[in-house]
Amino acid sequence: MPAYINEIFNSVQGEGPYVGIRQVFVRFEGCQLHCAYCDTPQTRNTSGTSRIEKTPGSGDFYSVKNPLDRDQVAGLIRKLWSPSTRHVSLTGGEPLINSDFIRTLDIEYPIYLETNAGFPEKARELKDIVAIASCDIKLPEHESTDHYPELLKNELETISIFNETSKTFVKVIILPETTKQSLSFAVDGVASIDRNIPFVLQPVTSNKAVSSSRLFELMDYAGEKLKDVRAIPQTHKMMKLL
Length: 242
Ligand code: SF4
Prior knowledge:
Layout: E1 5-12, E2 22-28, E3 49-53, E4 61-65, H1 70-80, E5 85-91, H2 99-103, E6 111-115, H3 120-126, E7 132-136, H4 148-165, E8 167-174, H5 180-193, E9 199-203, H6 212-223, E10 229-231, H7 235-238
Parallel strand pairs: 1-3, 2-5, 5-6, 6-7, 7-8, 8-9, 9-10
Antiparallel strand pairs: 1-2, 3-4
Helix pairs in contact: 3-4, 4-5, 5-6
């Protein structure tokens, strides 16, 4: 079954504990959520074309028709691999929607999955082939869904599944209005699974900055229950990379 892909390119990972590592990015289209801060709104729906980088890191693209089949995507990943590249980042949109496609994608490189963690049943299908799982936990103020308790339950189940087999970390976007109370959904949830799971607070990239005092307050709050709490912004945007 083919998949709708927004773009394929080579860059460095800009978020989370693997920041700075070179990756080939495969950005899937389609997402079941509608986060207020979404920085890839063009990927929520499917489109007629996909843009493909011509050579690794060139920033020069050509278009191909959507959807793409798995052999085509595997060939493009190989073409965009480079000597310092270490992972294939499957991102979106929400890549887990395409779990059948991913499961049969015949590539020899480690898979780094960036997911909103809303599909535990699909996580179960992929847990043995994902090397690194970057799992979001949404907060109520993200306005990602009209069914927050159900999303939170699914996210925690997904994290628990990946944590058994993959290097797993959690990423939470911090908005200026985020409080200890809203962050508690994520902190308590992760603490109930494994206190050692790295827990990244990512201040939203926006004109309305999160104050350093708020960020430190939230880090200390999380640090009371979790062992590895970090604040990491979107560094690729600082470097003006894709
Ligand atoms: S889960 Fe990601 S792609 Fe989907 S709406 Fe939220 S930020 Fe955008």
